[in-house]
Amino acid sequence: MQKVILAADHAAFDAKEKLKNYLIHKKYEVIDVGVYNADRADYPEYVKKAVFEIKKYHAYGILLCGSGLGVSMAANKYKGIRAALCRSPLDAEYARKHNNANVLCLGARFNSAEEIIKITDSFFHHPFEAGRHFDRIQMFQDLGE
């Protein structure tokens, strides 16, 4: 069973809950690090919690906020995290195939729950192609702090 770490802020709470239920139905093991209601929350706190779990379990992560931009910026501050903001299944396909993304970032105000599910399916359906892409990822893997 594939483990997935899930986190969101208040703006994406409803979308996270729908996605969580879908993933559980598809037999993923979901670790939800919050938020647990729609009260105002600061996404960097939940990104930090998610990244800790992603690294601990060598798992994939899915982060949601209103636009997806904030969670992607925050997640990419962490060494070893390759977070991709995806607004379409094609974005998710190439994030995995060419960039070996280990975190999917989604915007609940930009995509419907149905679109988020399709994007997520694409993310998990496409493996990393390696080859020429492997060397490129190695070039930036150890950048940052």
Quickly describe the structure:
The protein is an alpha/beta fold. The protein contains six helices and five strands, in the order E-H-E-H-E-H-E-H-E-H-H.
Instruction: Just name the CATH architecture.
Output: 3-Layer(aba) Sandwich
* Euclidean distance between termini CA atoms: 32 Å
Q: Which overall shape is indicated by the principal axes computed on the Cα atoms?
A: globular
How many strand elements? 5
> Sheet with the most strands?
5 strands, parallel
How much of the polypeptide forms β-strand, as a percent range? 15-25%
Percent helix: 40-55%
> Helix segment count?
6
Output the helix-strand order.
Answer: EHEHEHEHEHH
Whole-number count of domains: 1
Task: Report the mean per-residue pLDDT as an integer.
Answer: 93
CATH class: Alpha Beta
Note poorly predicted spans: none
Write down the CATH topology.
Ribose 5-phosphate Isomerase B, Chain: A
Would you give an account of this structure?
This protein is an alpha/beta fold and 145 residues long. The chain has one domain: Ribose 5-phosphate Isomerase B, Chain: A (3-Layer(aba) Sandwich). 46% of the residues lie in helices and 17% in strands. The chain is built from six helices and five strands. The protein has helices at residues 13-25, 43-57, 69-75, 89-97, 113-125, 132-141; strands spanning 3-8, 29-32, 60-65, 83-85, 103-107. It has a five-stranded parallel sheet with strand order 2-1-3-5-4, sandwiched between helices. α2 packs across α3 and α4 runs parallel beside α5 (113-125). The longest helix is centred in the middle third of the chain and has 15 residues, at 43-57. The radius of gyration is 14 Å and the shape is globular. The N and C termini lie far apart (32 Å). The model has no long low-confidence stretch (mean pLDDT 93).
